Amino acid sequence: MLKTLEGTQFQSINRAYNTVFRPNRLSLGLVVPIETYPRGPVPTMKSHIERVQLAEELGFSAVWLRDVPFNVPTFGDAGQTYDPFVYLGLLAGQTRRIALGVSSIILPLRHPAHVAKAAATVDVLSGGRLLLGVASGDRPEEYPALNLPFGDRGAAFRESFEYIRQMGETSPVFANAFGSPKGGLDMLPKPTSGKLPLLITGASQQDPEWIARNGDGWMTYPRNTAVQARIIHDWRSRVEAVGGADKPVMQPLYIDLTKNPDTQPQPLHLGLRLGVNHLREYLKSLEQIGINHVALNLRFNQADIEITLKRLADEILPEFSV
């Protein structure tokens, strides 16, 4: 097994972070919308609340929304179509235990004061169940639509990240490209633990050491297992080098779960078509190389969604329950 940093545990942040992420263990979540829509970018959002509630009932540890402000033709996926913070607020009132994640808010496209306020509100209203993924954005078409420079997104991401961090403090005073709070003003509510769990996606146009030092975890993409193992080893080495405690790593995985439990893995976009027995083995291999959470995406799944969720709960979740 790829070791975590010796003698450490993940930091304690909020209810979601502390439950979903455990050293040397893997947990499973689902990407919203929990439905099949392989032939076009826009989902139906049919039974979307009921399926999130079913995911909670069946024992999945988290659901993950995405920040897709525009339906960009070259991207080919409109996500859950609803604004992530509005939708997170709805889900906070419709669920009780499951972690509510977003992967990821595109920081340069929003003012960080709005992100900090909305995220802290979701965290408080849900009882500490927010996981906030953040990214610099990789869809160039969105930037001119908001009159923002695509080439400056790295600096904007970093400034936004630091602004959001400061807003967890009481009446912070600082100078930032997005503003300079002063005069005793404060932002309420505060996150449940006084800090939002910020998970950085990919490189986000940042130096790897900056990510290792500042992020509360790292979201990466599916890769060949051997390559992924080396990348995770490098990540944890950087975290150790900057003097930090161990931090979690997560990734998405598209799956098409077949009726035959022994179907051999076949590649599909950022994932696999395979039987449940091989999925279990694959997820165990990810756990062994240091992945702490996998967000399953059923967009290309050909079987009935409710049946697939129950199969996953019966045959996969017992190995990875939180």
What percent of the residues sit in helical stretches (DSSP H or I)?
25-40%
Gyration radius (Cα, Å) is 19 Å
CATH class: Alpha Beta
Q: What is the oligomeric state here?
A: single chain
CATH architecture type = Alpha-Beta Barrel
CATH topology: TIM Barrel
N-to-C SSE string, H for helix and E for strand: HEHEHEHEHHEHEHEEEHEHH
Number of discrete helical segments: 11
Low-confidence stretches: 1-7
Mean pLDDT: 95
Biggest sheet: strands side by side, in what order?
1-2-3-4-5-6-7-10
How many angstroms does the end-to-end distance come to? 19 Å
Strand content: 15-25%
Shape: globular
The main β sheet shows up as:
8 strands, parallel, barrel
Number of strands: 10
Total of domains: 1
Q: CATH superfamily membership, which one?
A: Luciferase-like domain
Structural class: alpha/beta
